[in-house]
Amino acid sequence: MTRTIYAPIIEECLSSTPYLTGEAFSLADAYLFVMIGWDNYWKMDISVYPSVQRFHRTVASRPSFQRLLEIVQPALEHIQLPRFPPVNAPPGLS
């Protein structure tokens, strides 16, 4: 799948910074987080990419994301969308 070719590039980028564009969280990080968190759509195993896994844990543990989950989780129970994996669940295993 085409997305698979980008994983090594993303891994390399995240190996030297906490977020895609450096030290600060950006919209690009929010989008990447959603894509790797919804492995039904991402369609690849990221367990071989430690920096991507670290990135997922970092974003999932942000207080703003935790607040977002509190708000949207009740609505997600009524629609057919994949759920965000728990913070401690390895991506690709949700």
Précis, in short:
This protein is mostly helical and about 90 residues long.
Distance between the termini: 20 Å
H/I helix tally: 5
Q: Kindly report the average pLDDT value.
A: 81
Q: Poorly predicted ranges (pLDDT <50, ≥5 residues)?
A: none
Q: Cα-atom Rg, whole angstroms?
A: 13 Å
Into which percent range does the helicity of residues fall? 40-55%
CATH architecture: Up-down Bundle
CATH secondary-structure class: Mainly Alpha
Structural classification = mainly alpha
Order of helices and strands: HHHHH
- What is the name of the CATH topology? Glutathione S-transferase Yfyf (Class Pi), Chain A, domain 2
Main sheet attributes: strand count, strand direction, barrel closure: none
For the secondary structure, the number of strands is 0
Measured by DSSP, the beta-strand proportion falls in: under 5%
As for the number of domains, it is 1
**Looking at the structure, what is the overall shape?**
globular
